[in-house]
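Tokens help. Our protein:
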Amino acid sequence: MAPVRLVDKIQTQLVDTQSVLFAFDLSAQRAALDLAREAVRELQQLHPERRTSNVYGEWLSPKNAHELSPKLQPLCQLVTTLCGQIWHDVFGQGGEHAADEFYVWQSWAVDYGQGGYAESHNHFPAFFAAVVYLEADATSAPIVFGHNAARPSLPNTLYIFPGALQHAVPHNTGRRVVVAMNILKKNPA
């Protein structure tokens, strides 16, 4: 049975709003980062085929990279733990087990290469989105939130942001390898 249609067309309108972004230096988490780098190299060998999406780069992994490579699990655990800390410390939600309220729904790795970019997009319905820079240099393209809020691509940096936050990556000229994640909350209340 077809769903009930109340209107013929849904209009989508983008609005610029101030939104929060959380940035972390993960340099002290060397073991998780090194395992993630190994995972990306292995995934590139096991899944070399070209994929199409809003990301255009040298290589894009399948969207279930965390399920394909156990070596991504420590990084995923780190990110969900930080999501729980944000939820508790910033938003005053969750109790002592706030980190257990979040899980990685999707994850993928991208090697942008020269000229790679990502069209403007968001990760809705993800509660949080995350991007971890495994490799970056001074000429790596930034991530741009909204229309002009650019944040640099720095090695070992993690950005966590609301899944509905619009963002893009301009044409890349440096080394830029990332792991991105969509994070869901187990209990949306």
